[in-house]
UniProtKB/TrEMBL annotation:
Residues 71-299 form the Solute-binding protein family 3/N-terminal domain. Transmembrane segments: none annotated. Pfam families: SBP_bac_3. This is ABC transporter substrate-binding protein. Residues 1-22 form the signal peptide. Keywords: Signal. InterPro entries: Solute-binding_3/MltF_N. Residues 30-41 have a biased composition (Gly residues). Residues 30-54 are annotated as: Disordered.
């Protein structure tokens, strides 16, 4: 899920560094406090994000089972800065996905509530009606759209991050036998299985894979030399460079670029159309661009939102 450089304000970098070093304060058990989508300690020099107004036509497409309490409950793994992570208070969930999800909810006349979860538990939580949506840097894949609906809103790829200076001489093409970290449940966790098959076919040793529940723990494993490289979404890998005082660098260009999607349970009438319409409206009125600029991830912008793209 991609190497793009970006310059972050010092306050944001310091706040995120604290999160990385702490391993993410609120944990990944699904019980973390919800965030309102405010920027908290993550101030930015980008223009303020406008507050969307309700679109009555889109709101009418939201099922009563979702709208009855006035909330849109998102499951998210708040260990993936800058997309979703905890603020310096260790509880408030912030990030690009949070701001965008909050704006989508406002467009539908709802209040967003983000609940922290292990990444691998979000889609099962949606199927089990624990969450009404999932927004946690999910790449849209055929396997996922076979069981859930996904509304596209961003595009990202995979990047390889290593220690500064790349002491092991890694590249995305020579990882056989190397100690590589990934977050559980991600496309990168699936990728290492395929890579090991390729290594075996070449008569080379397999990757020594460290799979951890939180991306912040994977980054910490890299900076503490428990692994020599990590595979992560490109915005996340690029962000790790800024939040480790340059202890991490990205090697090579992003690959396997794919769209991110908001995850919804199947069989909910026009709910996917409501969410897709809300995302598209935010793209059209400039709110979407303002949010991406705030988090310095504008290179991942897409012009059109689709369902199960």
């Amino acid at each position: 899920m991609l190497a793009r450089t970006r310059s972050l304000p010092a306050a944001l970098a310091a706040a995120a560094l604290a999160v990385v070093l702490a391993g993410c304060g609120s944990g990944g058990d699904g019980s973390g406090a919800g965030g309102s989508g405010g920027s908290g300690g993550a101030a930015s020099s980008a223009p303020a994000v406008p507050t969307p107004t309700k679109d009555d036509a889109l709101a009418a497409k939201v099922p009563a089972s979702v709208s009855a309490d006035g909330k849109l409950v998102f499951g998210t793994d708040a260990s993936y800065p800058p997309n979703e992570f905890t603020d310096t208070d260790g509880r408030t969930i912030i990030g690009m996905d949070v701001d965008l999800g909050t704006a989508v909810a406002q467009k539908l006349g709802l209040q967003a509530e983000f609940q922290n979860s292990q990444f691998s538990g979000i889609i099962p939580g949606i199927d089990g009606a624990r969450y009404e949506a999932g927004m946690s840097s999910f790449s849209i894949t055929p396997d996922r759209t076979a069981t859930v609906d996904m509304v596209s809103y961003f595009t990202a790829g995979t990047s390889l991050a290593v220690k500064k200076g790349n002491p092991d001489g890694l590249s995305p093409d020579n990882l056989c036998g190397k100690a590589i970290g990934v977050q559980a449940g991600t496309t990168q966790a699936e990728e290492v299985t395929t890579r090991n098959q390729d290594c075996q076919a070449k008569g080379q040793p397999p990757l020594q894979v460290t799979e951890l529940q939180q991306q912040t723990d994977v980054t910490l494993a890299l900076t503490s030399s428990r692994i020599v490289g990590m595979l992560a979404d490109s915005p996340v890998a690029a962000y790790a460079v800024t939040t480790t005082n340059g202890a991490v660098e990205v090697v090579g260009a992003p690959y396997d670029t794919a769209p991110y999607g908001i995850v919804l349970k199947k069989g909910q009438g026009e709910f996917p159309q409501a969410v897709q319409g809300a995302v598209q409206a935010l793209m059209d009125d400039g709110t979407y661009k303002a949010i991406l600029d705030k988090w310095n991830v504008g290179n991942g912008a897409i012009p059109t939102s689709q369902i199960n793209a």
